Amino acid sequence: MNEQQLSELNNQRQYVQTPSQTIGPFFEYALPYAGGPDLVSGHHANAIRLHGTVYDGAGAVVPDALIEIWQADEAGTLVRNLGSLDRDGYTFTGFGRASVNLAGHYTFTTVKPGAVGNGAPYVLFTVFARGLMHHLFTRAYFPEDTDAHRNDTVLNAVPEERRASLIAVADGDGSYRFDIRLQGDDETVFLDFDA
Amino acid sequence: MTDSLPTQHEISAEIAEHEARTKRAMDAGEPAPLHPSRDYAPYRSSILRHPTHELVRVDPEEVERESPAFGHTDVNPLESDLTIQHSGEPLGERITVSGRVLDGEGRPVRHQLIEIWQANTAGRYVHKRDQHPAPLDPNFTGVGRAITGDNGEYLFTTIQPGPYPWKNHTNAWRPAHIHFSLFGSAFTQRLVTQMYFPADPLFALDPIYQSITDPAARQRLIGRYNHDLSVPEFSLGYEWDIVLTGPKSTWMESEDADE
C-alpha cells in the first residue's frame, strides 16, 4: 500500500492510538524546566528527598533519561492546582519532572503522599530515555508502610521475589532512594495499566 | 559504541525481518501492535534499555486515572510560535502545524499540555551533545509549548526541521521530525512521540520510525499537508491529530468495527 492508501485506511479507523517514539537524546534543552524537580521547597516542614539512579541491562548508568512523578498530597488528595511549570514555591501540584545527571542520578524534593483509597501510599513514576521506544510506568512505595503493603492490590499482583524493586529504601533523615533498573535480573517491575 | 558500525543494508535487513514477523502474527489473527516494541535491536540503543520481564498488568487506580492540571499560569500563548523567540527571523521554510488531541472515543483532550522540540532547518539541535557539524541558527531554539483548546485543538508556528545524521549505523539519517510530548486526562495516556512529514525518502531506512512494525500504525505519525492551513505569503500547513486512548478505552480495527 502506498502512503495515500494507508492514509485512507487510517481515516476509516477512527481514534486509534497514536504510536509512541523514543524521547531521543536531545530533550534536555526542551523538557526540563526550573523548579521541575521541586514539588515543594526544601524548607517545607515535611519535605522529603526522593532520588535514585537509572541503570541499563549492563549495570551502566543511563545518563540521558527523564523521570516524571505524579502523586497525591499529604492527605491523599489529587489536587487540580495549576502551576506545575511555573512554580511559586508554595502551591503543591503533585507533578514533578527531573532529568538525570551524567551519573544517571535524579532528585526530587516532595512530600510523602497520603494513601489514596485503600492501597498503600506511592508515587507514580514515568521513565523516558534515549533507546527506550515507549515510556515505562512504575510505582515507588515507602518502606515503613509494611502493613499497608500486605493489602495493596498492585504489590500483590507482583511476584514476591520482585516486589522489593517497587519499594524505596530509606537512606537518611527524610530521604528515600528509588533506583530504576531497565533490564536484568534485578529489573524494576514496570506496570501496564492498559490491560 | 566503539565497535564497527553496521551498514544500512544490515539494518534494513533486520527492519524487514521484524516487519515480516509482525505481518505473520497479524495474518494469524493477532491484533496490530499499536506501539513500537521496546525490544527492537535495529535501534541499537534499545538493546540494553528494554525490560526483559513482561510488564505487570494492573488496573489503574485514581492516581493513574487523573492527570496534572495545566493552564494559563503555566504556558504563555506566545510559546506556540517558535519563530518569534529571538530578535531576528529564523532561517528555513516556515510551517504551521495544527490538529486536535482526542481520546479513544473521539472526545477532545481539553486544556492539556503539549510540548514540542525539534532541529533547525539545517538539522541541528540546540543541545550541547548534538555534534552534527551543521550550523546553529541564533534565531531559532526549536522549543514550543501550548495548552489545548476547548476542542482539543493546538497550533504551532515553526520552521521545517532538517534531517540529520546519527551514529546508529554507517550513514544513518533521521527523517525530518518534530518531537511531541502530550498529557491526556489520565496519566496513563501520557505520550512522547514524533511527527513526520509526507513522503520522506528516509522512512524506509530509519529504525526508529520502522520500530512501529505495522505500516498503518507508522502512517499515523505523518502529518498531512493541508493547504487550508497554509498561511498566504507566510507558511505551509500540516495537519496532525493525536489520539490518546486510555485505560479501558476500547478500540477496534475497522475490519471488525463495520457493524
Q: Helix- and strand-based class of chain A?
A: alpha+beta
Structural classification of chain B: alpha+beta
Q: Any low-confidence stretches of chain A, pLDDT <50, length ≥5?
A: none
Our measurement of the CA-to-CA distance between the termini of chain B, rounded to an integer number of angstroms, reads 52 Å
Report the count of strand segments of chain A.
10
Give the overall shape of chain A.
Answer: globular
Distinct helical segment count of chain A: 3
Mean pLDDT of chain B: 93
> First CA to last CA of chain A: what distance?
31 Å
Radius of gyration of chain A: 18 Å
SSE order of chain B, as H and E?
Answer: HEHEEEEEEEEHEEE
Count the DSSP helices of chain B.
3
The helicity of chain B comes to: 10-25%
CA radius of gyration of chain B is: 19 Å
Look at the structure and give the mean pLDDT of chain A: 94
Largest interchain contact:
A-B, 80 and 90 residues
Hey, roughly how much beta strand do the residues of chain A contain?
A: 15-25%
Name its key features.
heterodimer; A: 195 residues; alpha+beta; 4-stranded antiparallel beta sheet; 3 helices; B: 259 residues; disordered C terminus
Helices and strands in order, then pairings?
The complex is a heterodimer of chains A (195) and B (259).
Chain A: H1 3-12, E1 48-55, E2 65-70, E3 95-99, E4 105-110, E5 122-129, E6 136-141, H2 146-150, H3 153-157, E7 169-170, E8 175-177, E9 180-181, E10 191-192
Parallel strand pairs in A: 1-8, 1-9
Antiparallel strand pairs in A: 1-4, 2-3, 2-5, 5-6, 7-8
Chain B: H1 8-27, E1 56-57, H2 62-65, E2 94-103, E3 113-118, E4 143-147, E5 153-159, E6 164-166, E7 172-174, E8 177-182, E9 191-196, H3 215-219, E10 224-225, E11 236-239, E12 242-244
Parallel strand pairs in B: 2-11, 2-12
Antiparallel strand pairs in B: 2-5, 3-4, 3-8, 6-7, 8-9, 10-11
